[in-house]
Amino acid sequence: MPTGGDAHGEFRDRGSKFVARLAHVRDEAAALAIVEEEAALHHKCNHHCYAYRIGEGTDRWRANDDGEPSGTAGKPILGQIDKAGLSDVVIVVSRYWGGTKLGASGLINAYREAAALAVESVEKGWQPLVGRVEIKFGYELMTPVMSALSQLDLEMASQDFGDSATVQLEIPRSQVADKVKALKAAIGGVYLEEVDKEYTVAGLDITVH
Predict the structure, then answer these.
(1) Residue 95 is part of which domain span?
(2) What digits encode the pLDDT tens for the residues 125-171?
(3) If 115 and its partner were Cys, which of 77, 106, 129, 186 is the partner (CB 3.0–4.6 Å)?
(4) What is Dmax (Cα atoms) for the chain?
């Protein structure tokens, strides 16, 4: 989870200034509230473009161009969120008009770079936005568990081998659901399509924190 507050970035091109804010949010309402805050703060701007992704999966997201040419603002911002593997975040980029038209390619670059600078601040100043996955299993599952971790290129953050084995993983939150599903399939020796919410493997307990 973020620990250092919001992150910011600023990009300039031919007189126009693009001010980005990245904030941690838990739902769409919180994301839109951040957009409103930025619109009020930067009230001289005509455009407050934004994107957000909510949850561990990839189904709840939005990219908004706020009056800029279609596809030149929201999607480039969302692209930086996804590139960094972030979730439960919103990035708002407010544009101060500099008197010179930038064209579609210029706008795409400007919104992308402003968002990227905010993301860079996250990576430097915040703890990674990761999900912590705990795997508990009996020793009879040691070989399939270790094989699955290797197959999925997952590294153990910690491990404890007592009466039973416990392994801790740290996975980008946007990937947790897919990785847990893949783990269950690999350890259980079944096809990915066979793993649903009810699927279990005897002796295996996976918890997401």
Answers:
(1) 7-125
(2) 554 456 789 999 999 999 999 999 999 989 898 999 999 999 999 88
(3) 77
(4) 69
CA distances 63 to 18, 51, 78, 80, Å, are 17, 4, 6, 12
Q: What is the CATH number of the domain that holds 27?
A: 3.30.230.30
Q: What gap in Å lies between CA 172 and CA 61, rounded to an integer?
A: 16
Does 159 map to a domain? yes
Name which residue leads in pLDDT, 28 or 174: 28
What is the spatial distance between Cα 20 and Cα 176, in angstroms, rounded to a whole number? Answer: 27
Of 107, 125, 143, the residue that ends a domain is: 125
Among 125, 150, 167, residue at a domain's last position:
125
Q: Which of 113-127, 134-148, 172-186 has the highest mean pLDDT?
A: 134-148
For residues 135 and 149, state if they share a domain: yes
